[in-house]
């Protein structure tokens, strides 16, 4: 589950290089004292991370090589069978398709709408401050609460969806129980929740753009659209890259909304990888299989995060 | 950066190699015979601090939970040694998931409510306490209805006692039926059901169209019943019958009802829709009778489930089981709780308050239940229908994957109009692996 | 703001920004009107955006106070004809919201404080203290950010179980408290602080604790505020873990209390559910209203106290 926290990674400054050191006895003593103090300051946190984040990963890796239903006393070692089953399963393929669809649509729409909103906000029209706040508010509200409200909105009999559909002469589909509409419903909710964050980050990026370049381009006679596509967008590419990565990771882990709105259904139409992992372990008692899927997710996210660090580091060193 | 990554990989590999034996040893310890596990923590009110604490895990929320709590309160007044704490998890699934996880964390409740399709798995895993030995002259096995007790008996030992047992009923909106001109009863067969659905077509009230039936995708219980009605079923022992003509016909009926006739639809909340008047009928548990009747602003009628080639009435609901890994003392205390809940006034109050079937002789023969059955025709229906009811098919009971696969299959048909035959064959092929997995244990402990 | 934009000196930037702002946002009334007319489509878009985000919240609030006859009716009634507290009282009866609120507050406050304290000390250590291989250690720590939550659920449940902490506040708080994010953000920030002040203090003989307390912390208030606020939001909205780790309904926090309310023996009453949702949503909205500036400022990285 990506937290609000993890999306803020990357919003940082360039660290200053430390001055060169000389080696003297006094220095070495200070080094040892410093190291001891380091242990005192840092180890509690590191230990907690080790126990509650890393240890489960290893344990999960082990479980992925076993067959277990939670209830029997011992997991049974079966080697790589779970992975073999996973990669030849058409159900898992569907899950991955749903997941990739989710990620691409949510991240893509959030970015496009986000930058559009940011451009709108950067014009500083009256009321912008209030609207910025309103647009960002869903980001801080619990996913479960947002899911509950939208469940009502999507109600085909009494919800807002029916009002809107009948206004154009159509009948509202039964969103959360219709296999073709359930995923779009969740995508809408997910985008609604996340676009504010993207807009704010883009806005911050825009406000940090070197104004001289913009001025020069405007004086050169570039119209607004050209200014945007040729100058602003490329200058914002670090922001874009940061957002793509963080939003992708968050989208992969989206859970609360699925849990409260569709429970992965109907007929697995909204079963993404994160829901699949949960469902296999806690509903189907198929722990080893779930662990294998969890490992797959971990690897995917690891690759994505590594890409981010590679890119950012390269950029920093001009 | 590259160097750092490689070092990290080496670090990770080294850690893994070193901890592999530790990882394997994480599970299984402390589960042998005679092992005693702790209780889960909870709330103990001050007044009961000096009593022996028994923990009961229940799936019932709000209305039914209140009824249960009242009975437990009466239990506390009736004696002064035992305090029973109820911990609630919404739905049979959540209780099962929690119980499974807790077995691993080695903290188990003393009593747990388990649904009729879940307790068997815990039985296979040797997690339940055999209860035959707890009966005595004052409270014998004849205290319970034989049919229900038999469903919880394996190899002559009682493992699971009936508590909140039910069958589905056919609920219908009597006012609406009268308005449309349908007879004031349940349809005798599914074919008749379908005809009535066609008669209702186009009817609307309060600004929205009214459907004949709101289907649920969250429970395959009703589908289990209709497979029997059509002459099919899920399985014969561990041999699957999902792709037999009769079973496919049952699902095809639903598909046509929903997608050809437009008389039914898949709903998130069938009983809510029924109460709100969006659907004329639902198939729903007897356990919902009280709450639905109270919430509805129209006359609620009940009838038998439709038949077809034959009757198709599944039993369902939950029962109580004692966990083997509780301590001797607590298991005895747990038995006292169960005795209290299953006899006398408590037993009567439970069935009247919830609408679940009376499962004990005490309840069935009590004046209140007798009076209720004669006064309230809906209540009577449930009791009478029991004569034709049977427990779930073996595969549905013992194979964990069966329920999620079944739900997937019916959702695919109800929601997306998928072909019933292919949905059922997908389900059958998905279940093969799981059946093979439990076969050895099943042969050993059941056959 | 990503760590890639160049940093011209403050004065030049401010001057240009001011000049630009003056050109775009005239304080003169007439000119502003002219501006408005020119950007009428912008105002329209702003209004549309506001509408998209306000309407669901509006629906939430009004439905919470509508009577059933106003909700379950067609055509829909936008505003309630009668305001009723019934939904709220029913929700409060069906589920112990008082306990939910208390639990959420305790878990959030303790959890957030613990997270911040741990992050501050760990970040300080990484930024200012020597340790062999600390850079590698830092990267390893960051790896934890990639771990998807579900992967950790069962094992953490067993670990907490072995500690005897299931269904306790400690059990809810503990696994989330060791956060890599806060450490990361603060370490970057600490390392960007001007070293001259520290060097002067070191000459004076100031120890690390004094350095931390009287110099680093005051210079990092906005960054710490950001970490704190993010921690508060995460703890309050946390869902799956509290769901698994709590047994008694009275130990639940608000978001999963909402799930409990929704279960309600299978019948969803929209009014009751919306009022329960409102209780869950309101505190965070209030926090957000008051702290919006900090959250947004933290994100832009143009922290007020950086003084560049």
Features:
heterotrimer; A: 318 residues; mainly alpha; MetI-like fold; two-stranded antiparallel sheet; 2 strands; 69% helix; 1% strand; B: alpha/beta; D-Maltodextrin-Binding Protein, domain 2; 2 domains; five-stranded mixed sheet; 19 helices; 18 strands
Describe the protein's architecture and organization:
The complex is a heterotrimer of chains A (318), B (447) and C (308). Chain A is mainly α and 318 residues long. Chain A has helices at 4-7, 25-63, 81-88, 90-122, 128-136, 143-153, 160-167, 182-207, 211-219, 224-235, 237-252, 256-261, 273-282, 287-316, and strands at residues 66-67, 76-77. Helix content of chain A is 69%, strand content 1%. Chain A has a two-stranded antiparallel sheet with strand order 1-2. In chain A, helix 8 runs antiparallel to helix 11 (237-252). Chain A is flat. Chain A starts with a helix and ends with a helix. Chain B contains 19 helices and 18 strands. Chain B has a five-stranded mixed sheet. In chain B, helix 2 (62-78) runs antiparallel to helix 13 and helix 18 packs antiparallel against helix 19. Residues 1-5 of chain B have low confidence and may be disordered. Chain C has 308 residues and is an all-alpha fold. Chain C is built from 16 helices and no strands. In chain C, helix 10 runs antiparallel to helix 13. Chain C is globular. Chain C starts with 9 loop residues before the first helix and ends in an 8-residue tail after the last helix. The relative contact order of chain C is 0.12. At the A-C interface, helix 1, helix 2, helix 5, helix 6 and helix 7 of A face helix 1, helix 3, helix 6, helix 7 and helix 8 of C.
Number of strands of chain A: 2
- Largest interface between protein chains, with number of residues from each side: A-C, 116 and 119 residues
Mean pLDDT of chain C: 77
Which class best fits the helix and strand makeup of chain A? mainly alpha
Give the class of chain C from helix and strand content and strand pairing: mainly alpha
What percentage of residues of chain C falls in helices of 4 or more residues? over 70%
Strand line-up in the sheet with most strands of chain A: 1-2
Q: Per CATH, what is the topology of the domain at 97-318 in chain A?
A: MetI-like fold
CATH class of the domain at 95-303 in chain C: Mainly Alpha
What is the assigned CATH homologous superfamily of the domain at 97-318 in chain A? MetI-like
Work out the radius of gyration of chain C: 25 Å
Low-pLDDT sequence parts of chain A: 9-14
Shape of chain A: flat
Topology as H/E string of chain C? HHHHHHHHHHHHHHHH
Named at the architecture level, the CATH assignment of the domain at 95-303 in chain C is Orthogonal Bundle
Q: Could you name the CATH topology of the domain at 95-303 in chain C?
A: MetI-like fold
State mean pLDDT of chain A (0 to 100 scale).
Answer: 83
Q: Order of helices and strands of chain A, N to C?
A: HHEEHHHHHHHHHHHH
**How many β-strands of chain C, per DSSP?**
0
Major sheet size, sense and barrel closure of chain A: 2 strands, antiparallel
Task: Give the assembly state of these chains.
Answer: heterotrimer
């Amino acid at each position: 589950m990506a937290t609000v926290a993890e999306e803020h990674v990357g919003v940082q400054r360039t660290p200053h290089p430390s001055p060169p050191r000389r080696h003297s006895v006094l220095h070495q003593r200070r080094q040892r004292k410093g190291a001891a103090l380091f242990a005192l300051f840092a180890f509690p946190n590191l230990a907690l991370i080790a126990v509650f984040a890393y240890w489960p990963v290893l344990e999960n890796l082990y479980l992925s090589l076993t067959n277990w239903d939670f209830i029997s006393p011992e997991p049974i070692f079966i080697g790589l069978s779970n992975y073999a089953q996973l990669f030849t399963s058409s159900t898992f393929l569907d899950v991955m398709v749903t997941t990739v669809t989710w990620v691409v649509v949510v991240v893509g729409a959030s970015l496009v709408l986000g930058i559009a909103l940011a451009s709108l906000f950067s014009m500083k029209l009256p009321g912008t401050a209030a609207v910025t706040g309103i647009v960002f508010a869903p980001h801080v509200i619990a996913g479960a609460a947002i899911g509950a409200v939208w469940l009502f909105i999507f109600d085909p009999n009494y919800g807002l969806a029916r009002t809107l559909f009948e206004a154009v002469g159509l009948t509202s589909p039964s969103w959360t129980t219709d296999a073709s509409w359930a995923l779009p419903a969740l995508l809408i909710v997910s985008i609604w929740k996340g676009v504010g964050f993207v807009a704010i980050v883009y806005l911050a990026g825009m406000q940090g753009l070197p104004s001289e370049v913009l001025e020069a381009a405007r004086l050169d006679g570039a119209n607004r659209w050209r200014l945007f596509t040729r100058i602003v967008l490329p200058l914002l590419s670090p922001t874009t890259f940061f957002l793509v990565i963080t939003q992708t990771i968050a989208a992969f882990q989206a859970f609360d909304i699925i849990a409260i709105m569709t429970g992965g259904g109907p007929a697995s139409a909204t079963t993404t990888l994160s829901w699949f992992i949960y469902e296999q372990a806690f509903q189907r008692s198929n722990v080893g299989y779930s662990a294998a899927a969890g490992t797959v997710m971990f690897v995917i996210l690891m690759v994505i995060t590594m890409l981010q660090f590679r890119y950012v580091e390269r950029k920093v060193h001009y | 950066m590259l160097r750092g990554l490689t070092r990290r990989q080496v670090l990770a590999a080294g850690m893994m190699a070193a901890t592999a034996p530790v990882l394997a040893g994480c599970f299984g310890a402390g589960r042998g015979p005679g092992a005693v596990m702790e209780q889960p923590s909870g709330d103990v009110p001050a007044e009961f601090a000096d009593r022996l604490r028994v923990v009961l895990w229940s799936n019932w929320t709000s209305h039914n939970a209140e009824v249960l709590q009242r009975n437990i309160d009466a239990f506390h007044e009736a004696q002064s040694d035992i305090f029973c704490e109820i911990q609630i998890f919404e739905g049979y699934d959540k209780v099962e998931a929690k119980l499974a996880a807790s077995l691993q964390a080695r903290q188990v409740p003393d009593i747990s409510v388990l649904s009729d399709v879940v307790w068997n798995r815990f039985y296979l895993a040797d997690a339940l306490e055999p209860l035959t030995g707890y009966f005595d002259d004052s409270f014998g096995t004849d205290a319970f209805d034989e049919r229900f007790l038999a469903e919880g008996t394996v190899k002559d030992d009682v493992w699971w006692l009936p508590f909140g047992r039910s069958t589905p009923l056919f609920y219908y909106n009597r006012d609406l039926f009268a308005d449309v001109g349908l007879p004031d009863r349940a349809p005798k067969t599914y074919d008749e059901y379908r005809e009535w659905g066609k008669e209702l077509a186009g009817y609307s009230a309060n600004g929205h169209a009214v459907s004949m039936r709101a289907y649920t995708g969250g429970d395959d219980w009703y589908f289990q019943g209709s497979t029997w009605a059509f002459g099919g079923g899920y399985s014969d022992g561990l041999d699957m019958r999902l792709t037999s003509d009769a079973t496919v016909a049952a699902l095809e009926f639903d598909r046509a009802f929903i997608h050809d006739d437009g008389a039914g639809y898949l709903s998130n909340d069938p009983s809510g829709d029924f109460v709100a008047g969006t659907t004329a009928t639902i198939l729903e548990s007897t356990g919902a009778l009280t709450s639905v009747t109270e919430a509805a602003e129209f006359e609620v009628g009940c009838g038998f489930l439709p038949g077809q080639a034959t009757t198709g009435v599944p039993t369902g609901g939950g029962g109580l089981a004692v966990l083997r890994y509780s301590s001797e003392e607590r298991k005895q205390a747990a038995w006292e709780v169960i005795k209290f809940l299953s006899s006398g006034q408590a037993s009567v109050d439970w069935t009247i308050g919830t609408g679940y079937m009376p499962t004990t002789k005490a309840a069935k023969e009590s004046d209140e239940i007798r009076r209720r059955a004669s006064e309230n025709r809906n209540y009577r229906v449930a009791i009478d229908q029991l004569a034709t009811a049977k427990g779930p098919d073996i595969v549905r009971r013992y194979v964990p994957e069966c329920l999620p696969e079944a739900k997937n299959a019916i959702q695919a048909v109800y929601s997306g109009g998928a072909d019933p035959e292919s949905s059922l064959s997908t389900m059958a092929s998905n279940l093969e692996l799981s059946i093979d997995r439990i076969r050895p244990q099943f042969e050993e402990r059941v056959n | 703001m990503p760590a890639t934009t160049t940093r011209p000196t403050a004065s030049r930037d401010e001057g240009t920004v001011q000049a630009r702002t003056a050109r775009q946002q005239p304080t003169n009334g007439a000119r502003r009107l002219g501006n408005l007319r020119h950007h009428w489509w912008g105002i329209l878009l702003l209004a549309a955006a506001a509408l998209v985000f306000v309407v669901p919240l509006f629906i939430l609030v009004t439905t919470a106070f509508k009577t059933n006859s106003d909700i379950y009716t067609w055509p829909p009634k936008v505003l309630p004809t009668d305001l009723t507290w019934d939904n709220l009282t029913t929700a409060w009866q069906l589920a112990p919201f008082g306990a939910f609120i208390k639990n959420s507050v305790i878990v959030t406050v303790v959890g957030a404080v613990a997270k911040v304290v741990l992050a501050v000390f760990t970040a300080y250590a990484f930024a200012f203290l020597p340790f062999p291989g600390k850079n590698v250690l830092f990267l390893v720590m960051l790896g934890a950010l990639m771990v998807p939550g579900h992967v950790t659920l069962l094992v953490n449940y067993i670990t907490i179980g072995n500690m005897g902490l299931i269904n306790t506040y400690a059990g809810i708080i503990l696994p989330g408290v060791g956060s890599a994010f806060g450490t990361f953000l603060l370490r970057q920030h600490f390392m960007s602080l001007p070293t001259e002040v520290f060097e002067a203090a070191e000459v004076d003989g100031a120890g690390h604790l004094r350095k931390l307390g009287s110099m680093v912390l005051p210079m990092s208030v906005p960054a710490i505020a950001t970490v704190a606020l993010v921690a508060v939001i995460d703890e309050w909205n946390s869902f799956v873990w509290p769901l698994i780790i709590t047994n008694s309904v009275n130990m639940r926090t608000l978001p999963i209390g909402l799930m409990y309310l929704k279960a309600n023996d299978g019948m969803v009453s929209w009014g009751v559910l919306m009022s329960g949702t409102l209780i869950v949503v309101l505190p965070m909205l209030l926090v957000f209203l008051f702290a919006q500036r900090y959250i947004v400022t933290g994100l832009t990285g143009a922290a007020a106290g950086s003084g560049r």
